[in-house]
Amino acid sequence: MDSLSGKKCVHVAVGVILGSDGRILLAKRPDHLHMGGRWEFPGGKVEEGESIQQAMTRELREELDIGVLAMEKLIEVRHDYGEKQVFLDTWCVTAFSGKARGVEGQALAWVTASDLTDYEFPDANQPIVVAVQNRFG
Ligand SMILES: Nc1nc2c([nH]c(=O)n2[C@@H]2O[C@H](COP(=O)(O)OP(=O)(O)OP(=O)(O)O)[C@@H](O)[C@H]2O)c(=O)[nH]1
Ligand SMILES: [Mg+2]
């Protein structure tokens, strides 16, 4: 809990998943969720007692049925949505096992770093897109 605002800060594991051809995996958020209909980097909330690696591994197994083999830190982004604050703990997933599929029925897209600007992301994601383009663009 953020003691200044009293608003809960949600710690989110965000995965920039790199395919073997250098493209990046995006997933479409279901319409009924927060920021629904926008494209996101797969991931989800870090649970109590979990490390970021454990959370990323669990979320990407649940959402995409892949196994995280290697990840490295990219950027930390804090954003206030008004109704909630998010801490997007963003890592590049540089190696994974299996073939990604949208386990929850979500659409997936493999996108080059330079094409990321064609996609509509949640409001917090702009610094992530810039960081990805700086590193891989
Ligand atoms: N996964 C993900 N979440 C993001 C991104 N950008 C962003 O603002 N978020 C926000 O982070 C929060 C948590 O993400 P989530 O909804 O994926 O959490 P989750 O998988 O644990 O789902 P759940 O709510 O069903 O437990 C949401 O409010 C979401 O809008 C992003 O690129 N990827
Ligand atoms: Mg999620």
TrEMBL record:
EC number: 3.6.1.55
InterPro entries with a match to the protein in the record: Mutator_MutT, MutT-like, MutY_C, Nudix_hydrolase, NUDIX_hydrolase-like_dom_sf, NUDIX_hydrolase_CS, NUDIX_hydrolase_dom
Residues of the signal peptide: none
Nudix hydrolase domain segment(s): 9-136
UniProt keyword annotations, A-Z: DNA damage, DNA repair, DNA replication, Hydrolase, Magnesium, Metal-binding, Mutator protein
Class of enzymatic activity (EC top level): hydrolase
Reactions this protein catalyses: 8-oxo-GTP + H2O = 8-oxo-GMP + diphosphate + H(+); 8-oxo-dGTP + H2O = 8-oxo-dGMP + diphosphate + H(+)
UniProt keyword Hydrolase, yes or no: yes
Coiled coil: none
Cofactor: Mg(2+)
Family named by the database record: Belongs to the Nudix hydrolase family.
Protein name in the entry: 8-oxo-dGTP diphosphatase
Organism: Microbulbifer bruguierae
Lineage: Bacteria, Pseudomonadati, Pseudomonadota, Gammaproteobacteria, Cellvibrionales
